[in-house]
Amino acid sequence: MATIRERLNRVRQQINASEKRYGRQHGSVTLLAVSKTWPLADVLAAAKAGQHCFGENYVQEAATKIDACPIELEWHFIGHIQSNKSRDIANRCAWVHSVDRLKLARRLSEQRPQHLAPLNICLQVNISGERSKSGLSPGQALALAHQVSELPNLRLRGLMAIPAPTVDFNQQRATFRRVRELQQRLINQGIALDTLSMGMSGDLEAAIAEGATMVRVGTAIFGRRHYPQTERTA
Ligand SMILES: *Cc1c(COP(=O)(O)O)cnc(C)c1O
Question: What is the pLDDT of residues 215-230, one digit of tens each?
């Protein structure tokens, strides 16, 4: 079995190769290592191999891991947040990729400690229109983007999307293209955005081809997860 360092290097090579192939500037895609369900020891192994940004999905797990982490890392929250759990994220993370409603954004802004930099925000868009997925519909994005831009302790950075899974590369690209086009429409409406958070282990090349600036990769770095993909409260 490959080590975390080896798998991380493989993912970095994949990102570099995709940047080159699709005419993207070298270094324009940031790798977010998604460490949900994996212990702090694995995060530290990745950090030792040079990884700085980590993504977590579950509030309680994130809080426990971040509080126990002995070194300074950049934490991104990428999962669903119940409004009554927002404080645990507002005071620990540098980014939240999963904002899909104004109430949550307002709470994150109110709860962001004043001694920290503004919380970086992506709006999560339900780009495939899946009933089961969280995220706002593309039609709601402009209104929420304007509202979030007004909140004092947040900094709106871009959009995040999790398309319906498919192994068809062209279909992956077509969906990511719609996220990029939505981002461009918001920019044309005067909203300053610089981040497209899209692409995971199975579709990061297609995402980079369509302009992703941040890919969120778990399985390809840490291995296959064994826990159920639901919020756990332990
Ligand atoms: C789990 C997760 C990822 C990572 O997915 P992999 O397929 O393991 O790379 C990325 N983004 C979000 C929002 C996730 O929940």
Answer: 999 999 999 998 655 5
